[in-house]
């Protein structure tokens, strides 16, 4: 399978057409941005790590939790063939422990436990700063139908259940993460985008050391080492 014209370039990935109209190739980059593009940098090795972790998790979510995903085939260290989808313009955020923007919103310190997971939506629009929206906005704006929204919520919570156990088995607390879903030509809702240290908060269960993009956002140092450690732990899992 070969890359044809570039369809899209995002902050961390490029997307190419292929000779099959139903298949795209995503190519992961080492570029990193934070705070809506205000902070820019490079995390060496990130593209390879995020590609490999995402594909590993999508395969397991599909086989062991029955979650439909866009994943087709890993083509190289940085490139993966995926189903061509229309992205639902929502960032679907699942939270298990208070951190990041939620810590500011509710005035509680990072690390505060929650009684149950929180599901949040943001409208994917950089110019607007990805504002938080709720179910009513999603339906009223036509971003998804009620059936699609039900599927997205069901998948997001099932993905959380699966990933909580998976990461706990490798000594990682899954604090929160962001998912994106897409719609195939047949109208099926599938998990798209990535699941990686760019899009999740991972804390070492014992030391609570941050092993994710917060190291870059907050200048905590050794971001590359943290990404590499996550790759090794994920691939060392049973
Ligand atoms: N997140 C993401 N992309 C975004 C915003 C958030 O991947 O554009 C992830 C982030 O890495 C974290 C979770 O979603 O794991 C919740 O992020 P939060 O709302 O706390 O925002 P942040 O503090 O990262 O700005």
Q: Runs with pLDDT <50, length 5+?
A: none
Q: How would a textbook summarize the main sheet?
A: 7 strands, antiparallel
Which oligomerization state do the chains in this entry correspond to? single chain
> What is the 3D form?
globular
Please state roughly what percent of the residues sit in beta strands, choosing from under 5%, 5-15%, 15-25%, 25-35%, 35-45% or over 45%: 25-35%
State the distance separating the first and last CA atoms.
31 Å
Q: Which structural class fits the helix and strand makeup?
A: alpha+beta
Strands, total number:
14
CATH class bucket of the largest domain = Alpha Beta
- Rg, alpha carbons: 17 Å
**Integer tally of domains:** 2
The portion of residues assigned to helices is 25-40%
CATH homology superfamily name of the largest domain: ATP-grasp fold, B domain
- Provide mean pLDDT, rounded: 97
Count, helices: 6
H/E topology pattern: EEEEEHEEEEHEEHHEEEHH
CATH topology of the largest domain: D-amino Acid Aminotransferase, Chain A, domain 1
Characterize the structure shown:
With about 240 residues, this protein is an alpha+beta fold. It folds into 2 domains: about 80 residues, Phosphorylase Kinase, domain 1 (2-Layer Sandwich); about 140 residues, D-amino Acid Aminotransferase, Chain A, domain 1 (2-Layer Sandwich). The protein is about 30% helix and about 30% strand. It contains 6 helices and 14 strands. The strands form 3 sheets. Strands 8, 9, 10, 11, 12, 13 and 14 form a 7-stranded antiparallel beta sheet that branches. Helix 1 packs across helix 4 and helix 1 packs parallel to helix 6. The chain is globular, with a radius of gyration of 17 Å. The two termini are about 30 Å apart. The mean pLDDT is about 95. Bound molecules: uridine-5'-diphosphate. Uridine-5'-diphosphate binds next to strand 9, helix 2, strand 12 and strand 14.
């Amino acid at each position: 399978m070969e890359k044809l014209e570039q369809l899209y370039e995002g902050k961390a990935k490029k997307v190419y057409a292929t000779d099959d109209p139903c298949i795209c190739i995503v190519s992961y980059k080492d570029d990193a941005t934070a705070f809506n593009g205000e902070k820019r940098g490079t995390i060496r090795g990130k593209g390879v790590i995020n590609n490999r972790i995402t594909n590993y998790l999508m395969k397991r979510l599909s086989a062991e939790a029955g979650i439909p995903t866009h994943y087709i085939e890993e083509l190289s260290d940085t490139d993966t063939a995926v189903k061509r989808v229309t992205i639902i313009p929502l960032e679907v955020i699942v939270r298990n422990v208070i951190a990041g923007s939620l810590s500011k919103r509710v005035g509680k310190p990072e690390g505060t436990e929650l009684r149950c997971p929180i599901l949040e939506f943001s409208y994917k629009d950089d110019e607007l700063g990805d504002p938080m929206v709720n179910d009513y906005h999603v339906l009223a704006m036509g971003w998804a139908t009620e059936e699609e929204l039900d599927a997205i919520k069901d998948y997001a919570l099932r993905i959380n259940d699966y990933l909580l156990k998976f990461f706990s088995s490798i000594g990682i607390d899954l604090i929160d993460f962001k998912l994106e879903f897409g719609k195939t030509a047949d109208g099926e809702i599938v998990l798209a985008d990535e699941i990686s240290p760019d899009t999740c908060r991972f804390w070492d269960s014992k030391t609570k050391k941050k092993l994710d993009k917060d190291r870059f956002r907050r200048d905590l140092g050794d971001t590359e080492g943290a990404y590499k450690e996550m790759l090794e732990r994920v691939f060392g899992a049973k």
